[in-house]
Amino acid sequence: MSSTRVAVALALLAGAMSVAALLVVGDWSDAPDLPVDIAIGLSYSAAAVLVLAGTGGRRIGWLLLGIGLCGAVAGLAAALSLDGIGDWIWVGGFLPLLTLVPLLYPDGRLPGARWRPWVVTSVAGMALLAVGSATYPGDVAEVVFLTGAAVLVPSCLAGAAALVVRWRRADGLVRRQVQVLLVPAGLLLLDTVLQGWLPWPANALTQAAATALVPVAIGVAVTRHRLYDLDLAVCRAVGGLSLAVCLAAIYVSLFLLVAAVLPGGPTVAAATAAAVCGLLLHPLGVRLTRGVDRMFYGDRADPARVLEATAAALRDDLGEVPERVCAVLVESLRLGSATIVVGVAEPGLPLTHRGEVVGTLLVTPRAGEAGLSSRDADLLAVVCDQVAPAVAALRLSDRLQHSRAALVTAREEERRRLRRDLHDGVGAALAGVRLQVETARDLVTDPVAGGLLHSAAAGVATAVDDVRAITDDLRPAVLDDLGLGAGLRGLADRMATPGTGIDVTVDLDGQLPAAVEVACYRIAAEALANAVRHARARRVAVHLDGTPDWVSLRVEDDGAGLPESPRAGGLGLASMRQRAEEIGGRLTVTSTAAGTVVRADLPLEAR
Fold first, then answer.
1. 265-278: per-residue pLDDT in tens?
2. Does residue 353 sit in helix, strand or coil?
């Protein structure tokens, strides 16, 4: 017989004993802890079968089954007034919940080697407590009982600490598993501490409810990533188990309260409790089903919530829409990952806008699932329709930015060519003509001819000056004459003052595109002017370096920083940012009390 069949048989035995205890009990006051024992016998045995049916969590599963069997035996012994058994077996049906379960949860392994002594103390404390309970009364029994209790107190605290340690160390699915158990474990520990202050039957009922919540949480968390082929069955089983536990708790609570308050005996109490449970069956079942479905699948059962969160993500900056939407989908649907690829057709969910595929949504299913279910695919298809217009706008924006960068690059390259042609062609020709005219003027003796030649020489000189002015307006002359590095050092020499020193470091290989050269030069000039004139800096450092794809310019100063409100008419920062962005780059300005850092990252190719 397989271990799973053995577990199912033992679980059925525990369930039968729990039901028998409920049927044969006479006076509930003679068995005050019977509701707790029945809750343990039913819920822990069912949760054990659910866990053991998977491929992992074997230790946790058998531990839960042992707890359920002990609880069922304790309950039946209490109902039959078998004090010789019920006096000690309750230890195995309750105390492992506070010690061994949190230590071994969720995968049956300890958080580390240093936690092994706490397993020993937990087992030793429970053994001493069981022996003391079985041999009570007596002085030796009392000493043994108190010793076991003293050993178990730090063991319970160690169990709670183990859960906290796992939660802090873990991430992703394991972290969610621990989170599922933290609240029920905390409620059970709190209820155990308050047992001495609660009257009967309130103490028994609250402890039964708190105890039954733990196996529900464990069943959900431990099987969540191991039984995906039986995902629907697991979800329904957890929902049915939760409903059964809640209805049993409500029935027992109402039965005891009505029997104690109203005349008519057990018959009236049973009828009243059954009627109330019947009225609560449907609404409670619907709520529990939705809650369990949300634990397993996130907000898949509530598409409006997912679409609302997606719409909120679309209100952010256009460039951040893909990342925001993917984060919403992963969080809302518990997906493994989600990525939006703009403008690339890949296997996945297409984003279609006006009949054109503008992007693709790539998702990985929940950890352990073979693929997306039809419900997930249908919901993601609606999300794709909602997101597609924003992705189309982002795609169009990227294209416009690329076109803008290409135009600026072409403009600056053409200006460099024009400057070179005007300077080396027309300018040189005009300079030669001027020299010839001036030489002819000096050689002639006729005053009329000399005057004409003098006027011609002046006109040619004016034309040479105009050509030089045009070439200087096209782009900084120093960039073509000496290069960008020398141009930055020239800027530093012109702007340095006795109170402000400027250092320039250039680490570049080869010539840069014309647009990048002009942007670096203009941004550096504006940043140096701000540092010297407005920030009153003592030291300014200019760093220029690059990679095969990018050039980075940094201007750092130790001045007063940027003002809280920009000056009226100030265009410096806006101009620098525009120069960087128009060729596909980015500008960041960081200002603190220690100074300001202006950084421009510029691509070597239009983007």
1. 666 777 777 777 77
2. strand
Q: Token pair for residue 342?
A: 């703009």
Q: Mean of the pLDDT values across residues 54-82?
A: 77
Report the side by side order of strands in the sheet with 501-507: 501-507, 539-546, 550-557, 595-603, 586-592
Treating both helix axes as pointing N-terminal to C-terminal, what angle do 374-421 and 447-474 enclose, rounded to 10 degrees? 160
The C-alpha atoms of residue 68 and residue 62 are separated, in whole angstroms, by 10
| Cβ(408)–Cβ(582) below 8 Å | yes
CATH number for the domain running over 482-603? 3.30.565.10
- The answer to whether the beta carbons of residues 603 and 584 sit under 8 Å apart is yes
3-state SS track over 30-67: HCCCHHHHHHHHHHHHHHHHHHHCCCCCHHHHHHHHHH
Q: What is the largest CA-CA distance in the chain?
A: 147
**511 phi, psi to nearest 5 deg:** -90, 140
Give me the half-sphere count of Cα atoms (radius 13 Å) on the Cβ side of residue 529: 11
Q: What is the CA radius of gyration of the chain?
A: 41
CB 557 within 8 A of CB 540: yes
Whether pTM > 0.90 for this model: the answer is no
Q: What is the DSSP string of 54-101?
A: SSS-HHHHHHHHHHHHHHHHHHHHHHTT-HHHHHHHHHHHHGGGTTHH
The per-residue pLDDT for 230 is 38
Which of 304, 201, 318 lies closest to 258 in space, CA to CA? 201
556-574 residues labelled b (16+ CB within 10 A) or e (exposed): bbbbebbeeeeeeeeebbe
Q: For residues 34 and 37, give the distance between their C-alpha atoms in angstroms, rounded to a whole number.
A: 5
Handedness of CA 331, 335, 336, 341 (dihedral sign): negative
User: How wide is the angle at C-alpha 117 spanned by C-alphas 116 and 120, nearest 5°?
Assistant: 100
At 406-421, the pLDDT tens digits run 777 677 677 667 766 6
Q: Is 123 helix (H, G, I), strand (E, B) or coil?
A: helix
Give mean pLDDT, residues 516-536.
Answer: 84
Answer whether 129's CB lies under 8 Å from 123's CB.
Answer: no
CATH of span 3-226: 1.20.1070
Output the 3-class SS for 358-396: EEEEEEECCCCCCCCCHHHHHHHHHHHHHHHHHHHHHHH
Helix, strand or coil, per DSSP, at residue 300: coil
Q: 332-389 pLDDT, tens per residue?
A: 777 777 777 776 656 778 878 777 777 888 877 765 556 676 777 777 888 888 878 8
In angstroms, how far is the first alpha carbon of the chain from the final one?
Answer: 67
In angstroms, the Cα distances linking 456 to 424, 445, 451, 453, 459 are 22, 16, 9, 5, 5
H or E segment to which residue 543 belongs: strand 539-546
Give me 116's structure tokens. 């092994």
